[in-house]
Amino acid sequence: MPSMLWALLAGNFAIGTGVMVASATLNEVSAFFQVPVPVAGYLISVAALVVCLGAPTLAAAVAPFDRRKLLAAAMVWYGLLHAACALATDFHVLLALRVLAVIPAAVFTPQAAACAGYLMPAEQRGRAITFVFVGWSLASVLGMPLNAWLSGMLGWQGAYGLVAVLSLASAAWVWQAMPHDVRPPRFSLASWGTALRMPALMLCVAVTLLCAAGQFVVFAYFAPIFRNSLGASVHELSALFMFFGAFGLLGNVLMSRYIDRLGAPRGVMITIGAIALSMLAWPLASTLVLAAVVLVPWALGCFSANSAQQARLVSLAPALAGGSVALNTSAMYAGQAIGTAVGGWMISHQAMQSLHLAGLVLLVAAMAVSAWAARVASRGAAQAPAATGVVANRSA
Description:
The structure is a single chain. By secondary structure, this protein is mostly helical. It has 18 helices and no strands. The longest helix is centred in the C-terminal third of the chain and has 41 residues. It starts with a helix and ends with a helix.
């Protein structure tokens, strides 16, 4: 892979580590500021809403900028604001800083995917996009366990400090590796109209929202779930996160290698189905070892599902990639906010043991909508040649 793609992967690693830091440090933040776990969960849901709204809004605003400068500047911002978060002494200040800190996530992730699709040949586009998203898998296998371990050893501030260091380092790498003056086609208001009128595209975005919501009903509360139900220590929790991340990385690597052979729609269905399988088997997780086994299908599908979704959107409408990927990012974070809010509400009503059932319902809905999107896209592709033929015959 070109060095540019490795730099974008590193940027996504830092972004993913920063996004996950709130989940990994939930217990410590709750104890430090003496707020309930669902209140500490606002660090996840409110930040997710900001990125949800920012991704499509900023897609048009950043269109004129050279992507080398834009992506490097986004990572500098991300690093400095996470450093400021580490210095917060009041929960409300931390919450406000967290909202500002995650704004670059609305820019970097979709623009990195758009750049990968824009700069690589069509036959390598799917692999390039999924490769860049391996950074998120690495964030799970390395970043999240490090966050959990540092939070337990040094306090939650150590985890936020780690994100700051990773972000500034990746900013330097992006600046060095990205070509000069990269400007994918500008996403205009007319392009937004075109994208929003494409049923297959919008159904794919809905799949992302449902899938993210289904996962974050449970994922956002991994730390308190495993502490309360299994008595997991800081070291055990870190090991479990690392185990989850290792299989997440494996799933994304496999998806990157085989997506062009499988086809993105089939890849999406397989990965969401794997996550749903873990939700179905959740009651079997009565020990840490069994919990790890139950998490394997989920981990394999977790990050590879979104990678396949990104490739699916770009293949449906390459010219609209800048906006469609931004919409998909928006849907992912909206789903995270919805799932976190639903999970927090259930926990506050003493229903922590039923979180997996809510997740399962949302994931089954995501699979149904994904199948619908595939049928709509197939119907549209079948009708396009026929329409061309009619025009040709009339011209003759």
